[in-house]
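Extended Data, record Fatty acid-binding protein, liver
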Amino acid sequence: MDFSGKYQLESHENFEAFMKAVGLPDDEIEKGKDIKSISEIHQDGKDFKVTVTAGTKVVLYSFTVGEECELETFTGEKAKSVVHMDGNKLRVCVKGIESLTELNGDTIINVLTFDGIVYKRFSRRIS
């Protein structure tokens, strides 16, 4: 399954509680809660390049499924991890944050779990 495309966040659940749990300052939580981020994904086999634009912040990720890579947390910390792919799902754990990203048609559902707190993001393909 090819994840390539541009996706815009349509809705999310439990943003504030999750971001507080992972250590994001209250002022950044307040600024970020209404931003409709855009994720641009380029997939070439097992190689991924992801650009996430949220307001003025732009984060770039490059990884190869099954190989160690460096990823950034919501607080800006960098950590090494391995992204795994199972059909239309990508799984990774970074600094205790478990992430499951599923492509379902033109929708990407990202479920993040940290310390028992679940944050869900729903993004729709816009190109």
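Summary. The longest helix spans residues 15-22.
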